[in-house]
């Protein structure tokens, strides 16, 4: 292996990122692979195209290069006999992020995504090494930012931040270029200036998208399919937060055919947490992105099929109703997912305060999460954060390391009733965080062109108002259940809109409809904590198995009668 263009962190972990397999390991992989050969100059796979899976080189040399939509090609590494090609996307058959080209005649073993997952499970010690290398390669591509999409637009603009957030939270590499400061980006920007874009997105295949949404970008990057899904799954999970991911991992590891849908990204609200310090087993804490990312890869290892982004429009029983009929999940793009059982794990979103001018400034200085992207915009500035729960506390602590001052507005008398003590202590120890109790945001100042310029809040006791010049406001207030797909009321909801489970005759996590379960924040009476959601996601699988056994008996009855 020759290192051509890799980051310092890659150099330090080169043996883990690009290991060479010995004869015994190659023999173990060979049971799952198919021989293939390539002539000099042939591409083994190309960026933006679905690759064949993992390729183990038996002889010959291959150069791995990064290629982006601007036409730049940068060699990364040269690999030879005993080394394998691919990154973590090969677990699910995702499009390649880099090019692989034969420098000479090459012999290889091709291990398809399905067979690769079998290798990781059947060969535990070898699978651990392969998985670590595949993950670290994706991390390296994200660090370099030379692969994946190129976003061209003014840095900090809401549209740019929105797609940055989508790509980052879905573990996709990308690069941002500001046409006001980058001559190369300006040349491309000027070609489309007559259409007055807010953002351009260039895919690895050279396609240029003007002001795309997340779904359009995902389709261009090959992250989602568009064809019909013509099989019945054992289990469909709506929502890829901690509860949904836990259910997916446990269900798939026990042999169920599982599909997971989410219209944003994996991780849910927890995925936006800068640091979770009270989750069991992580004494130094872990970011929500890292925790959910590990679960996402773990689920793929067991063969879970992901559709992200995929907005669920409705959930219903198969029509006309038949004994043992499927559950039908209809997506906004017209596709239909049929499944024997469904888990609703859609979670809850933060409330939108009744503040003047809010809608015009969302994404233009008003944020509902705090990631490195937003933190960069806040460097050495005063920011205002609204909320008194754990997510608000985690965000305040994280932002205090970047902003000059963080002002927390809390509607209650303080933090003790709504926040974990370790976060209260952390906030009290931060010299640049101030907590103002009995305060409520009332007016946001600015417009779509200037972005947020100032905020006004009111004392809920005295009625006194205060204004502060700030360019970034973070909102973490309350929880609204994500149950729009259940709006026909076939699934019972409590007065606040959360899913009711465990009614008479039902399993503890089962709704009023047999075979439809709910876990995590969307469930009525749930504890709104990451650990609790993961626990429910694990516990519900046994109840799903019980339902599937009953369903199998129902489906056998007509056969017996015939």
Write the layout of secondary structure elements.
Blueprint: E1 2-3, H1 8-12, H2 14-17, H3 23-30, E2 34-38, E3 43-45, E4 54-59, E5 62-67, E6 73-79, E7 84-85, E8 99-102, E9 106-111, H4 113-122, H5 124-144, E10 149-152, H6 158-169, E11 174-177, H7 183-191, E12 200-202, E13 208-210, H8 214-220, E14 232-238, H9 242-253, E15 258-261, H10 288-301, E16 305-307, E17 312-317, E18 327-331, E19 336-344, E20 348-349, H11 358-361, E21 366-367, H12 372-377, E22 382-386, H13 390-400, E23 405-410, H14 421-428, E24 433-437, E25 439-447, E26 451-459, E27 465-468, E28 473-475, E29 480-481, E30 516-518, H15 530-561
Parallel strand pairs: 10-11, 14-15, 14-19, 15-16, 19-30, 21-28, 22-23, 22-28, 23-24
Antiparallel strand pairs: 1-6, 2-9, 3-8, 4-7, 4-9, 5-6, 5-8, 10-12, 12-13, 17-18, 18-19, 20-29, 25-26, 26-27
Helix pairs in contact: 4-5, 9-10, 9-15, 13-14
Task: Write a compact overview of the structure shown.
By secondary structure, the chain is an alpha/beta fold. The chain contains 15 helices and 30 strands. The mean pLDDT is 90.
Structure description:
This protein has 562 residues and is α/β, with parallel strands linked by helices. Helix content is 29%, strand content 25%. The protein is built from 15 helices and 30 strands. It is globular and about 80 Å long. The chain starts with a strand and ends with a helix. The mean pLDDT is 90.
